[in-house]
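Human: If only I could read backbone structure tokens as easily as an amino acid sequence. Take your time, and here it is.
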Amino acid sequence: MQRAVNESLNSARAADALVSRVATWLPAESWAVVGRDVRNMTFVIAERGLVASAEMAARAVGNWVIEHSRVYSVASLRAAGPAVVDGPDVAAIAFPLVCRGQTVAALVGMDGQAAPEAPRCSATMLRVLRNVFEPAAYAL
């Protein structure tokens, strides 16, 4: 992962490398790296499988993760509460991308349908993922 995200100084390429790798490791219909621009507006830096109708939901989830610096997980974005209003009926999980103690972006995964329960990762898995994602956060 570190080599893939450090091959370029271009943050979009680093984000693209991240979603390409994550899409092979973790099962989800779509993955996106969501960041903020200089006006503090969210935007999709890179994505795999994200349909246009789900982009606003991915950006809303990414914004929530950037604001709260916490993992976000929900069985259905339609019933997600404050992070997404009127979202699609799909399961989602999102991870903060942290650089020097600050969340600089979010990695958002969404399935094509709702799930019986919210996706979960063990504390050990979250620590491993945080370490794996860290080089990408620095590259962004």
Remarks:
- The radius of gyration is 14 Å.
- The longest strand covers residues 102-110.
